[in-house]
Amino acid sequence: GEDVEQSLFLSVREGDSSVINCTYTDSSSTYLYWYKQEPGAGLQLLTYIFSNMDMKQDQRLTVLLNKKDKHLSLRIADTQTGDSAIYFCAGGGSTLGRLYFGRGTQLTVWP
Amino acid sequence: DAGVTQSPTHLIKTRGQQVTLRCSPKSGHDTVSWYQQALGQGPQFIFQYYEEEERQRGNFPDRFSGHQYPNYSSELNVNALLLGDSALYLCASSLINEQFFGPGTRLTVL
Questions:
Q1: Are the beta carbons of B22 and B67 closer than 8 angstroms?
Q2: Strand pairing of A105-110 and A9-13?
Q3: Is the Cα torsion angle B55, A44, A61, A23 positive or negative in sign?
Q4: Are the CB atoms for A65 and A47 separated by under 8 Å?
Q5: Residue of chain A minimizing CA distance to B30
Q6: Are B86 and B107 within 8 A, CB to CB?
Q7: Which of B48, B56, B99 should one mutate to test binding to chain A, selecting the residue with the greatest count of A CBs within 10 A?
Q8: Prior bond to A39 cis, omega within 30?
Q9: What does the mean pLDDT of chain A come to?
Q10: For B56-92, how does the pLDDT look when each residue is reduced to its tens digit (9 = 90+)?
């Protein structure tokens, strides 16, 4: 299987950028995903990146992938209080296959 | 277009009982996966169904079983419940490279 590691907590001020980091062990992961979970809710797919890409940008979100170091990051620009949630990094080895999740990073945004 | 739906929202059972959780996938999705999320942890893959067959299975005992119907909806069954089965159970449906999750069923075993 795959191990996915994330730091557990991140606090930022409203308006700053947030960077959430993730490392993974299985270099055969084809896709790498970022999900957001608000209290008491399911997981919301934010974005994903194919393993042969270095970067993907989607509005306020930027995903960077360093395949050599097996390191994935999610940058949220102009972070808002509504961005406060748990963010999960997940790897998938094949299309429609199982996902391996990290423990999640609790992002707290202070006004 | 409704997203992934799950029922019930919450469930309380006692040890040794059996439970059935239900999932309706997003319209047009034919693959359903089930995950268990314990408190403070990331989701753990239980199994995946495609064309009414179990296609992949995670490291869960045989007490966990499932079914997929011709309309792609799915059930997760857990027999002989243990206290450690208390968790949020998430269903995800898939199309191409994206898995979309439902709101989950919170199962509490007393």
A1: no
A2: parallel
A3: negative
A4: no
A5: A96
A6: yes
A7: B99
A8: no
A9: 91
A10: 999 999 999 999 999 999 999 999 999 999 999 999 9
